[in-house]
Write a structure and sequence with these properties.
two-stranded antiparallel ribbon; single chain; mainly alpha; three-stranded antiparallel beta sheet
Amino acid sequence: MAQTWPRKRREKPVRIDPLADALAARRVLRDAYRARHELAKAFQSDRTDTHRLRWVTVITLLRAVGHALDSVDVRRSRAMKEAAKAAWTRWHQNPLHHLIFHEFIKRERDVVLKEYRLTSRRVAALGEPVNAIPSIGASTVFLIGGRSYSALGAIDAALEWWEAEISQIEHEAGSGNQPDRRLSTWAEPGRQPRRVE
């Protein structure tokens, strides 16, 4: 993955990234990993208000990965735009192959942000019938495409799905836009990269 910030600030050498990387989507994804960690810590307590706030945060960030990819990263290059567009088409044409996106990332975000309910109707706490429940906890089970996931397991599956999809998009965008590997990736501001022998 490319470095997303300059190594040095204020007129120091700045990294020029010749690869087509999904930098904005990867930044959001890193925050989603942090939010997942905070949710796991919150589940160790019995404070349902903390569970709810951490859940809303991680669900929002999981969906924001796609928005960053579609709104920000596509402006990085023509190759990135084409690769991202192809990915969105693939996800929508084959929803059964991307259930974690449709049944969890998108659906759960819609329920949380549009209705401020914590869960869609596809979850249950252990030992309870499948329906909407008032809180999220470590015992919450998600039924996604015939498989059951714990709350953290569903988030982990979503994080893994985004990792794989972003990597594929970056690969597709980079395959038609291969940089000259003899060029340094560091240059003075306003100058072209220098050749490395």
